[in-house]
Amino acid sequence: xxxxxxxxxxxxxxxxxxxxxxxxxxxxxxxxxxxxxxxxxxxxxxxxxxxxxxxxxxxxxxxxxxxxxxxxxxxxxxxxxxxxxxxxxxxxxxxxxxxxxxxxxxxxxxxxxxxxxxxxxxxxxxxxxxxxxxxxxxxxxxxxxxxxxxxxxxxxxxxxxxxxxxxxxxxxxxxxxxxxxxxxxxxxxxxxxxxxxxxxxxxxxxxxxxxxxxxxxxxxxxxxxxxxxxxxxxxxxxxxxxxx
Length: 244
Prior knowledge:
Blueprint: H1 3-26, H2 30-61, H3 71-93, H4 101-123, H5 130-151, H6 156-182, H7 186-210, H8 216-243
Helix pairs in contact: 1-2, 1-8, 2-3, 2-8, 3-4, 3-8, 4-6, 5-6, 6-7, 7-8
């Protein structure tokens, strides 16, 4: 099957399962919801791995080619995707194993944070304005947490953790867009857009997880934004492989 068709089919299947996951979560069937989320997440990991395999093959066949992402960058992005999948699984399993929901939730957050760090390792070395991106990220993080402190009842630990977590995802986005400004090629466009949607979703989901926002439509939109972000990041590896 043609790679483009295969990727389109996989993406469609992924969004179908993500939609089924969102619908299932509304009916509070924890086991079914966890299974659907796992399948949806496996698909964006699979798309990333297909891109990485193509990237390795292209690099071996054309050692002099200059792809936007090399093999090492592709591997880092795929690791980030895998950790994102683990985060998805743990965050849904907390509703299955309710007696240990807090430790499972914490593990899921650590997985997501680790995935962001791998994305950062993949992109920061390519960013020409690291200090500016970091400063912008910290300004965004502090501003968002200060706003959330006014509308959410949170502990000091949450404030500190919030600044760190939002700082990391904001740094991912600012560094990705800084890289985009200096190298506006399709893989970078996809990655930067993916980082933006992913980060926006994370910030909005705090309102659902820690706030009083219980609107199902709002929660569904944030989950779709997250999945779209991961999909775009996975497709960025395939786009880089196409260039090689």
